[in-house]
Amino acid sequence: xxxxxxxxxxxxxxxxxxxxxxxxxxxxxxxxxxxxxxxxxxxxxxxxxxxxxxxxxxxxxxxxxxxxxxxxxxxxxxxxxxxxxxxxxxxxxxxxxxxxxxxxxxxxxxxxxxxxxxxxxxxxxxxxxxxxxxxxxxxxxxxxxxxxxxxxxxxxxxxxxxxxxxxxxxxxxxxxxxxxxxxxxxxxxxxxxxxxxxxxxxxxxxxxxxxxxxxxxxxxxxxxxxxxxxxxxxxxxxxxxxxxxxxxxxxxxxxxxxxxxxxxxxxxxxxxxxxxxxxxxxxxxxxxxxxxxxxxxxxxxxxxxxxxxxxxxxxxxxxxxxxxxxxxxxxxxxxxxxxxxxxxxxxxxxxxxxxxxxxxxxxxxxxxxxxxxxxxxxxxxxxxxxxxxxxxxxxxxxxxxxxxxxxxxxxxxxxxxxxxxxxxxxxxxxxxxxxxxxxxxxxxxxxxxxxxxxxxxxxxxxxxxxxxxxxxxxxxxxxxxx
Amino acid sequence: xxxxxxxxxxxxxxxxxxxxxxxxxxxxxxxxxxxxxxxxxxxxxxxxxxxxxxxxxxxxxxxxxxxxxxxxxxxxxxxxxxxxxxxxxxxxxxxxxxxxxxxxxxxxxxxxxxxxxxxxxxxxxxxxxxxxxxxxxxxxxxxxxxxxxxxxxxxxxxxxxxxxxxxxxxxxxxxxxxxxxxxxxxxxxxxxxxxxxxxxxxxxxxxxxxxxxxxxxxxxxxxxxxxxxxxxxxxxxxxxxxxxxxxxxxxxxxxxxxxxxxxxxxxxxxxxxxxxxxxxxxxxxxxxxxxxxxxxxxxxxxxxxxxxxxxxxxxxxxxxxxxxxxxxxxxxxxxxxxxxxxxxxxxxxxxxxxxxxxxxxxxxxxxxxxxxxxxxxxxxxxxxxxxxxxxxxxxxxxxxxxxxxxxxxxxxxxxxxxxxxxxxxxxxxxxxxxxxxxxxxxxxxxxxxxxxxxxxxxxxxx
Lengths: 482, 462
Fold this sequence. Notes:
- The complex is a heterodimer of chains A (482) and B (462).
- Chain A has 482 residues and is mainly α.
- Chain A has helices at 3-31, 36-54, 65-89, 96-107, 123-138, 140-147, 155-162, 175-199, 204-215, 232-245, 249-256, 260-264, 267-287, 294-309, 324-336, 349-367, 384-408, 415-426, 447-461, 465-470, 473-476, and strands at residues 376-377, 380-381.
- Chain B is an alpha/beta fold and 462 residues long.
- Chain B contains 15 helices and 22 strands.
- In chain B, the strands form four sheets. Chain B has a six-stranded parallel β-sheet, with helices on both faces. Chain B has a six-stranded parallel β-sheet with strand order 14-13-12-15-16-17.
- The longest helix of chain B has 19 residues, at 358-376.
- Classes of the chains: A mainly alpha (482), B alpha/beta (462).
- At the A-B interface, helix 7 and helix 8 of A face strand 2 and helix 2 of B.
């Protein structure tokens, strides 16, 4: 284990977080809020420690998968702890566990809140909440890779650990160039959404925060009622952008490079859109009676479906009151999640596709025991290694899930609440059902349960293994010379 | 690939097909030189290993397939390098890439069947560079055997000139002589390009005085090298007899060259069928059917009396052992070929005569070409060689008839310091230029210099 390089990268991370914090400071300055000083102090502290750490570059910059995973997991924890300090210092969220929950929920783009009165927060804190979504959506280490010239192919190990999906590929040969492309697309889409929201007469501040929450598929809104009171136009714009941010960014790259044929044939994106379409139709039929006009019904259904499958977690209607079929379908969509290589969470469409195809293959092999068949994705044979990790991922996911539901049970809430609370956090969605439904929040849980849910959020965002590796003792064992 | 972001100082977009020993060496070197590299290999395990170790993109698939090439971005590539195990596949890769996008193509072709047709292949298929590592290795070995005193010999200007490196012996007539007087005094036609003294490299002018034990590199035609060495009292007798163990491709190429030099060649090969093949292909060589690892057989065939001993089996370990054995029982000239490049430290500590790494030779040739290619974008540098551990460059320029260097005697040209006009190549003939010679349009000029970044022959002027 190369500790030097891990610490070095975390040092850089602290510098970057300090740089990010200039944004809420700026907001506070413009709005004349004294709460902004909390951000300023944390910014200075973080920058100071960060600068001291990166002052000396470690001699050994080698980096293996192990270091990549540990660095990413530690980075996210450090980032969340630093990110929660301003909330405590300016008394917007005075309790440490609550502040950390809110920040982790932000960075992991979950959007689950412990706040009863969101509108009571200062503007700069509201901005920071949405900004954490934006940073966490594409990943802060990917951002660092785009900016910092760190030579060597081992950077890929960082990107692999932070980017979601069963197999992480590059768009172009160089890691740095790939990271630049990803962020370029990300920023362009975000700005596009801001412009569209501004056309809908939404205020600039709200447009920016809403766009950032959509981009990271997070779900923090700046109003207590999320987007329920927003105009139909705004709701449609957000719906469309949620769906766009849930698509594999590789597709956008294909479009930029004018390879339209490949973009259209992208199997994962097609399946993803097909799932959305099917779900909208089923739920629409199921809930048609709740609204007078079909236009309202279709808008709310599409919004909710898009919000859940992309794991954003905005809402325009309280689906806790919808019929069972719709609720169950929405819960299932939480697990499916968005495309790999997007900013969304969940198990990911491509991984689900691999799992389903594997099952189909197994069934064929019972009928024809000697049949030879390979699982294919995007027209290519899926490597055994990818299959294996997808399977292991699913098993680990299930175990962690069951364990979390059990740990939550000490709070003596209903099964539906516990089940959906874990589903909403581990898949980075946000709202669940009943006590954690769209118009309610996570404030009622005990600190212990909140810690469990925080772990789930981080594990879900980082695709389980980095975090599990962090608590596995064999990683920390020093190899001694005998 | 068009990018919305600026790409200053970008390298070339290179697609490498085949990730064997040479492929990986190329990836390693080229990725350090800031090129955008995509690799293609059939074996997904190899691809993910290489893509995980170096900053390159990997594509699994058949490199000669149109779709795989598209996926790897050959349509945008500047260069494709095909180094798979199969000659035919390499040629096909390059041909398809040429049709897809008129990029530069480099192929490795090793079979003796094709060696006679290389120039035809190059011309008709439009492949810029065809490399044959076995042939290159054999040529290099033959050069060393012809001139056992030389430390290093580099072929230059398509083999018509060579750069020879040697250490001036204590008793040589070259000691304390001014460079300007050398050709006159010894009636020779050589050009001293560089002198290394106490680890310092100098590109000397006429007034420089040579001392004993200097390491001198000079450029000359092979014929003149010989006379020059004779004149200055360096032992020049070439190796008269040679024993080769193993009858692979390199052995065939080497034996062929040596028999053309009238050297007695003895090949020991373990496979009877191959022996029969070789005896047909190499009528002048003596082919012995037997195990080259058999001590008795080696002694029987006179390992202690042969002029040179070259083990060329497929196994590095066996080659090394054979060399050490030969060193122990005689003072014959030995050359060891090593394919793998691990455990270099151990190998360096063994006394194994001249050591050759075909893998490096192949990748060096390709690297040289790529560097020159990068230089040629917007310039007319034909080839570029790095000399003296990158401390100097040798550049080959095409001279345009309108160039300012044309039509003026060389001694009247205002040349830069630390620069040498080493050779002129006119109508395929190499001339070592004298002050009164005049450069003409269409010539190729070889310049040795410590300056870098030359783009045009006009850059040699002050």
